[in-house]
What we know:
Elements: H1 3-15, H2 24-45, H3 47-62, H4 64-73, H5 82-90, H6 99-110, H7 121-125, E1 127-131, E2 137-138, E3 143-145, E4 164-166, E5 170-171, E6 174-183, H8 184-188, H9 193-221, E7 223-225, H10 236-247, E8 249-251, E9 254-256, E10 262-265, H11 270-278, E11 306-309, H12 311-319, E12 342-345, E13 352-357, E14 365-369, E15 385-398, E16 404-407
Parallel strand pairs: 1-13, 7-16, 10-11
Antiparallel strand pairs: 2-5, 3-4, 6-15, 8-9, 10-12, 12-16, 13-15, 14-15
Helix pairs in contact: 1-2, 2-5, 2-9, 3-4, 3-6, 9-12
Amino acid sequence: MTVTKLRMGFREAAIRGHIPEQVVDRLTMMTILEAGIQAFHKGYYGALLDTNLEKSRDLRISNREGWDLALAAQDALLDDLTGIRWAHRQTETLTTSDFVLALAYTRDAALRPGYAPFESELLKVARVRNVQNFKPIKARGATNLLHRFLQLRPEATNVTYTGFIGQGEFYSVANWELAVSYTWEMYVNDEIGDFTSAMEELGEAAARTRAWSVIDAIARQAKRLPLLNGELGPTIENIQAVMADFAEQSVDGRFVSRTMTDMYLPATWNALAAVALNSQGVNYTGGASGTLAQQPAINPVYKAADPHPEPLMAEIFNAGPEGNPKYNDPQAAYADLSARDWVALDRNARPIEISYLDGFQAGPKTYTKVPDTVELNHGSFENHTYAVKVGDVHGAVVSDKTAIRIVQGV
C-alpha cells in the first residue's frame, strides 16, 4: 500500500459520489494511522492478534450480521478507536476492516489471569489489581492479624476479638507514554512502511514496560541475599542456602517460614540451574585425605524449585532501562545490582503486585493526532505532522518481602 494509491482510491470514490469530496484527505490519513495502530498492537500482542484477525475475518465472511453484532457487543473495549471507527463508517460501502473486532477479541483474551504481553515470568506471577485513580494504594497482604488462626471458643464463653497491624508499602500507578509522528514529508515521499515498522517496535516497547514495572519494584524493594560463594551462581550449595534463608525468618518478633518455589535467572545461569535442579544424584569429588565417611548420593535440591529464564531482568539490573532516573541512585537501591544476580520467591505467598488504572487492564490505549487545518494533506498548522500516541497506566510493588530475594551473583 502506498499513499498515492490510497488517496487515488478515495478520490475515485468521491468522484463516483460514494463519499464526500471533503473527507478524502482525512480518510487517507486515518487509514495510514490505522495501519500504524494495527502494527502497534501486533508488536504488543504478537500471535494473539494474528489469531483473532483470522477469527474476525472468518466471521465476517460467513455471517456479516453476526460480525456486526459481535462488534457492537465489544464496544466497551474500543473506546480509544473512535477516529478509526469514524473512518470505517464513511467507507463502509467500499471497504471493511477485520482489525477492530480482532482487537476487541484480543483485549478480551488479555483480561484472563496469567496473561503477559511480554515473555516475562515475573510479570505472570504478579497479583493483579484494578484501581480507579492515581491515589496511593496500600499493597495487599501487608495487613497482619494479631492471631494467625481462629481461636477455640469454649461453651458459654465470649468470642475473642483480634486486632491488625498495617505494615504495607504505599505505591501508585503512573502514566507511561510515547508517540510516533507521521510527517508531511513522509506523506509526500509516499512512505508508510517505516512508520508501521516504528509502530510495531513501539508495541514491543509497551509490552516490555509492563515487565520492567515489576522488575523495577523488585530491584528497589526486595531484600538482598549475599552468599559466601555467590559468584558461583545457583549451585546446589547456594540453592540450599537460599532455601534455608526462606525457611526461618523473624518479622516483628514473629517466626515466618517460606518455601522457595521459583527461581528467575539471567541467561548466564540457565544451564547451571537446570543441572542443579534436575540431577537426581550427586557425585562427590576431592577428599583424598581424612576420615572415610558415607555420603548420601541424593541431590537435596532435586526439583526443589521451577527455574525461569528472565533476560530482561539482567539488562535492567546491569544498566537500568533507558531514561530511568533512579538507576545508580543508592536511595533507589539500583547501585549494587549485577547482571548475574537472580531472584528467588515463594509463589504461594504472591509477593509481587501490579495495579492497572481502570480501562488499561487489557493493554495500552492509542491516541491519534490529526491536523487542525483545512488543508489536511499538509499536516498540522505548527509542523505539518500527524501522530499516534500510546499510553499505559500501571504501577508495581513488592507486597511481601518475606517471600522474595535478590540473590547475589557476583
